[in-house]
Amino acid sequence: MSGNKIRLGLIGGGAGSFIGVVHRVAAYMGERYELVGGVFSSQFESSKRFAESLDLDLCRAYSDLDSFIQGELALPASERIEVVSILTPNFLHYPMARKVVSAGFNVICEKPMTLTVAEAVEIESLASEKNIVFGLSHTYTGYPMVRQMREMIAAGDIGRIQKIDAQYYQGWINPLIHDPEKRAAIWRLDPQKSGQSCCIGDVGIHAFNLVEYISGLEITRVLADIDTLYEDNLLDVDGTAMFRTRDGVRGLIRASQIATGEENNISIAIYGNKGALKWHQENPTELHYLTDDQPQRIYKPGNSYNSSFSQDSTKIAPGHPEGLFDAMGNLYSGVAKAVRKESFHTGAFPGATDGVRGMKFVEAVLESNRSGQVWISV
Amino acid sequence: MSGNKIRLGLIGGGAGSFIGVVHRVAAYMGERYELVGGVFSSQFESSKRFAESLDLDLCRAYSDLDSFIQGELALPASERIEVVSILTPNFLHYPMARKVVSAGFNVICEKPMTLTVAEAVEIESLASEKNIVFGLSHTYTGYPMVRQMREMIAAGDIGRIQKIDAQYYQGWINPLIHDPEKRAAIWRLDPQKSGQSCCIGDVGIHAFNLVEYISGLEITRVLADIDTLYEDNLLDVDGTAMFRTRDGVRGLIRASQIATGEENNISIAIYGNKGALKWHQENPTELHYLTDDQPQRIYKPGNSYNSSFSQDSTKIAPGHPEGLFDAMGNLYSGVAKAVRKESFHTGAFPGATDGVRGMKFVEAVLESNRSGQVWISV
Amino acid sequence: MSGNKIRLGLIGGGAGSFIGVVHRVAAYMGERYELVGGVFSSQFESSKRFAESLDLDLCRAYSDLDSFIQGELALPASERIEVVSILTPNFLHYPMARKVVSAGFNVICEKPMTLTVAEAVEIESLASEKNIVFGLSHTYTGYPMVRQMREMIAAGDIGRIQKIDAQYYQGWINPLIHDPEKRAAIWRLDPQKSGQSCCIGDVGIHAFNLVEYISGLEITRVLADIDTLYEDNLLDVDGTAMFRTRDGVRGLIRASQIATGEENNISIAIYGNKGALKWHQENPTELHYLTDDQPQRIYKPGNSYNSSFSQDSTKIAPGHPEGLFDAMGNLYSGVAKAVRKESFHTGAFPGATDGVRGMKFVEAVLESNRSGQVWISV
Amino acid sequence: MSGNKIRLGLIGGGAGSFIGVVHRVAAYMGERYELVGGVFSSQFESSKRFAESLDLDLCRAYSDLDSFIQGELALPASERIEVVSILTPNFLHYPMARKVVSAGFNVICEKPMTLTVAEAVEIESLASEKNIVFGLSHTYTGYPMVRQMREMIAAGDIGRIQKIDAQYYQGWINPLIHDPEKRAAIWRLDPQKSGQSCCIGDVGIHAFNLVEYISGLEITRVLADIDTLYEDNLLDVDGTAMFRTRDGVRGLIRASQIATGEENNISIAIYGNKGALKWHQENPTELHYLTDDQPQRIYKPGNSYNSSFSQDSTKIAPGHPEGLFDAMGNLYSGVAKAVRKESFHTGAFPGATDGVRGMKFVEAVLESNRSGQVWISV
Questions:
Q1: Which of C20, C22, C18 is nearest to C10 (CA)?
Q2: Is residue C29 scored above 60 in pLDDT?
Q3: Cα of C83 vs its chain's centroid, Å
Q4: CA–CA separation, A148 vs A155, rounded Å?
């Protein structure tokens, strides 16, 4: 009853946590993990009740992170939790990741990895020094057609990139933002909990990550215009960043949480001199390939015309949709391979370096806006 | 480490089985099951290797179904497998379900439940007599928007139904059917393994199930035209059934496996005197609601405007797609509630009665066609 | 101010006529016709007023068809109307077409060409005998992507056809049919005005025409189930015809006017052993091409990858949609070429033979249904 | 044979001209114009041949604009051309419009109205002074669902606007731009013919016009980043303008001609605090209405739920698509009403003021970019 599965622990993500469900299901999907324990709640009793509900050994339900680390380190390596998923609120990612990494555990961390670039750099160094596997949940990179898009670009199918346009539009803040009391109560608008940014840090960063992940290009400068909508609101709820890559390609990252009625309208279009590729998260099974003179083509998951990396990211036959859990499941599978020292594709999961890049983007955007919408290096 | 989760066993569905992955992932998703053992392969060694790969207790990897039943019955009830999923080839569903149900296990059975109506009726009786929970994997009933469609119709949102049109078009047999050698090698075209029908029994039956599940109407007569395409091919690869419900509503079930290039193009449109609803499996997060004089509306999962049954079938916030695994997961969650004697929605999972209905449909379609396309009672 | 344009006359289609607008705009589009006169209304005063509103010579506004023929024949050939468009209610198509053709005018006739097969055959013979050009307004054949679909099939792009599925679903009768008084007042449900059939004769016939036009196959047998919904309603408002072509291909024509909320949902899918093509009228600029193993392709009008026949049916650059008027305009342009003895594509416009085919289909469907849904030769 | 129709003349737009076809068909559609004469080509012979091909009076085919003006003014008012459409290359719009307006003709001018703001202001003043009707062909404002969008916003259906995002992406320059010889030969990249801008002036200006037309807001500042792609190319082929309206609303205008494979991908999304509206030109019959808590709605043309302005812009029943010609036809119909002193909707056609606005936008964008991407007043 032991040996093959990777022992997984969760920090946060217990009863009632949406993101907890996503991570646990993702871990189950590839059948490479066994959930063993964690700190499922800031309330010890609640943490234990949650462990019990999942038939876990109650000894592995800890009261806090320090006890978790102490308890697990006291166990023989063959029983010890191997991967720790950090699912706590944003402001806890950094201090917790620091402790967990320092203690030598592999980590899967919710994004944003930290609240500042400095913190991110520290985590990156620490992870490298400790030689642990560090995964960051930029979940959209797990979609088979996102991976296919990356592979097609790497293979030269669209030629030299000349324009990038990425968007993440949500509307969820609209019903709350216009009422002073309601907006004061949103944790994502509270700098103490959310950090320096709301919209850019929460969703713009995903678009940024997709741009770099898919295009293989590095964004080096941004000029951004962000909006808090109300003077008494400290954090951005909408923002646009024009950017340039190291090679001089122009592009856009557009993000909003006041795009009324939008759910998770993430989309990305990349235009090259030989073709273009377009993808939209709410219909994730279609990748559109455009050229100058041929009919547009729709790539769908699981087909043999896809790259092997994309095909390996699909579990079922074409025509049966997979969704967000499956995308996250692919990240967990990637981390599993790394933990088990199996070979894995370089795009199998985002890591600490991506976390640093993301924080650099967020800080550059904020600085650009603060300085009156001017170009800032990332 | 025990108590809450339901102990699950699998018959079939081991290494390399596509349907095995679907069932296991579905079982994990709701976190109500623990996979304990089974007969994962017809080869004992392979079955054991598979159990080992999942860190299962090797004592619970059995060589065959009889050993499985004997072994599990020998265990105290508190350790015994509670639900058995039958994932073997079609022709084994009936004999295995009979044994498993007779031994008093709850069952989740792949469709088609049996190869004949007579067998299906026997299973239904036996399940009732043994008072076990019997679930049948008409997976599409697990999609949140299929459930929403059912609920809206039950609530009268489209008024009295006046027309039904359901389709399941696939193209997978096309690359094989035109070559005599290749088509002779397809197990689904072998009556010994596949039963009386290929296309109607494999996909038409899903469309039939959706029609009755969603509309709440009972199909009482069919007139069908089916096609084997080649004389040396014994089973249908395409077929259409015109039907009438008990209330005289006309409708259509259209099925094909020679619809070249189609993946799993299942769609259903139901028209009533007050409105209409349309759903398409390959884009399962959209349910279209049409009326005489208002703009068409698109219902999407997870929103508060949906029925509670539909909302309970979603795990994540609107805009993050769920797919086939999630649909199957909802069926497993429904069975779990039934097994644990919790209250559950009447549409939570299809059962043995649906299995009987399906086989009656298949036999009526075949008889109609054999008799020269005439009306036959279902 | 004369010489190049073809002199056009209208019978019906005056003030307030929807179909009149369509024909006049279609005639203007290709700049090959000049509207000269006609019988624009059954009321002479109204006819004259309409002529005046369009700055026509009032001498060419006639009181009735006989005066029209007499008046025009009295003019020198160089001034005489050359093409007569017959836009009157269904029951007048035959008697008027007979007169107009007998008098030697070229004709563009609204569909259905007649109310019976016998009448249609007579018109066909007469048109042939008089050697006039006879166009029939099966407008959908004028869409560039319908023409592209026909050309691709003729070129073998989908190989040997193995399945056809065509649909024309409307909902317009739904708000009227359920009220006995309202339904009694619908002229399309009055056999005196509408003929033997409502739904099949009005919309099913379009689907039939598209099937034969696009596939190049001949439907030889039908088995149909039609619905009047109420006993006191004499004509069909919904119906399905299973069919077989001369080569044994199976297919379906599905038609409805009680498909609540549908506008003009005409779509056609044709599956061959090498590929498939799908088109949907409400988004007429996309033609979908599917194969076994390549990404689906979307053909759009005006692109150089289309056949010359399709390209000639487009007036603007790709990406600027054309619609129904443009489709009808293409039919008028085809007739213009025939009238002027220029070479024209065999698919440039439907003619009297298509009218005969359509009526044969309608009568076969009705007979099949009357006989209890049995196979009837077309 | 005279009296009701408006006598129309064309400057440019003769044989082989794509835009000429669009204008003539548009003029025919509403049956309010009669094409009488013009300068159809810079070659007199060609101009005459074109007139002959359309059966026009050859006396009305002029050799040049001066002759046209002189000739028409010499005619009695009852015969004189009333509306002159200017369809010449960009750099001729201003000098020709100046002459035509000065001579007292009503005008429909292709966009861009002029090459500079100064010229545009002059035309606007002159048109006002001469009290003539001046229409500008921002054709997209003629689409029924664009008009519906404008009306819904004016009616408060989306509340207070908080975000605007408009796009016009084309790819047509991609196959030409990368070859030095080919790009040197493109007239749109020649400042002598095209003016100060290619992409912004040709397509960005349409997006700008739609934003102001639909939202009713005034853009007062822009910050733009534009791209010529090659150093030896003088004019922009891609550009983005962030903007602010007078009320402080943020928005984006994104334009490209190097968006490989895109045809005329114009789309606009406007988000308010009560809802949002989205429209896309390549599928112009769908207007999407989003709110916080209700299913998304799709508005389609011709339905009674639309505003009367939108309904009046449709000629056929719902479900039969209209396209670009119909949109332009609506502009011509609007101008016809103005010329005939009939009441017309304020949004019936864009005019000289819109032309001034457009040029101000173009110059502001260019200046912003030249100055290093800084905010510039429009």
A1: C20
A2: yes
A3: 17
A4: 10
D269 in contact with A, Cβ within 8 Å: yes
Q: Judge: D292–A229 Cβ closer than 8 Å, yes or no.
A: no
Provide the β-strand partners of residue D252. Answer: D165, D242
DSSP 3-state of A77: coil
Nearest to A264 among B264, B319, B322 (CB): B319
CB-based contacts of C342: which residues, under 8 Å, 6+ apart? none
Q: Which helix (H) or strand (E) holds A337?
A: helix A324-339
Positive or negative torsion for Cα A40, A41, A47, A50 = negative
> C-alpha angle with apex C65: C64 to C67, nearest 5 degrees?
70
Distance CA D2, CA A38 (A): 89
Residues 6+ apart with CB under 8 A from D314: D144, D301, D302, D322, D326
Side-chain-side CA neighbours of A177 within 13 Å: the count stands at 29
Q: Is C256 on the interface with B (CB under 8 A)?
A: yes
Is residue B350 within 8 Å of B141, Cβ to Cβ?
yes
Q: State what percent of residues in chain C have pLDDT above 90.
A: 97
The DSSP secondary-structure symbol of A19 reads H
In A171-200, which positions are buried (b, 16+ CB within 10 angstroms) versus exposed (e)?
bbbbebbbeeeebeebebbbeeebbbbbbb
What is the C-alpha to C-alpha distance for residues A284 and A274, in angstroms, rounded to an integer?
23
Cβ of D325 within 8 Å of Cβ of C325? The answer is: yes
Please provide the DSSP assignment of C212-275 as one string.
Answer: HHHH---EEEEEEEEE-SSTT--S-SEEEEEEEETT--EEEEEEES-STT-SSEEEEEEEESS-
pLDDT tens for B185-204 read 999 999 999 999 999 999 99
- Omega cis (within 30) before D112: yes
- Asked if the C-beta of B289 comes within 8 angstroms of chain D's C-beta atoms, the answer is yes
Distance from D161 to chain A by nearest Cα, in Å? 10
Chain centroid, CA D132 distance in Å = 19
**Closest Cα in chain D to B305:** D294
Three-state SS at D135: strand
Q: What is the H or E stretch that residue C73 is in?
A: helix C65-73
Phi, psi for residue B194 in degrees, rounded to 5? -105, -20
How many angstroms separate the CA of residue C345 from the nearest CA in chain B?
29
Mean pLDDT, residues A149-165? 98
Per-residue pLDDT, averaged over B253-268, amounts to: 98
Q: Which of D259, D276, D290 minimises the CB distance to A276? A: D259
User: Do the Cβ atoms of A298 and C303 come within 8 Å?
Assistant: no
- Residue C35 pLDDT greater than 90, yes or no: yes
Instruction: Work out the pLDDT band at B366, boundaries 50, 70, 90.
Output: very high
Amino acid at A376: I
pLDDT of residue A1: 43
What tens digit of pLDDT does each residue of D63-102 get? 999 999 999 999 999 999 999 999 999 999 999 999 999 9
> Which of D285, D289, D296, D300 is best to mutate for the B interface (most B CBs within 10 A)?
D296
> CA-CA distance, A41 to A11, in Å (whole number)?
8
A373 touches chain D (CB under 8 A): yes
Residue B128 has pLDDT above 80, yes or no: yes
Whether residue C250 and residue B225 make contact (CB cut-off 8 A), yes or no, is: yes
For residues D246 and D217, the answer to whether their CB atoms sit within 8 Å is yes
Cβ contact A290–D240 (<8 Å): no
Order of strands, edge to edge, in the sheet holding C83-86?
C33-39, C6-11, C83-86, C106-109, C134-136
Phi, psi dihedral angles at D55 (to 5 degrees): 60, 30
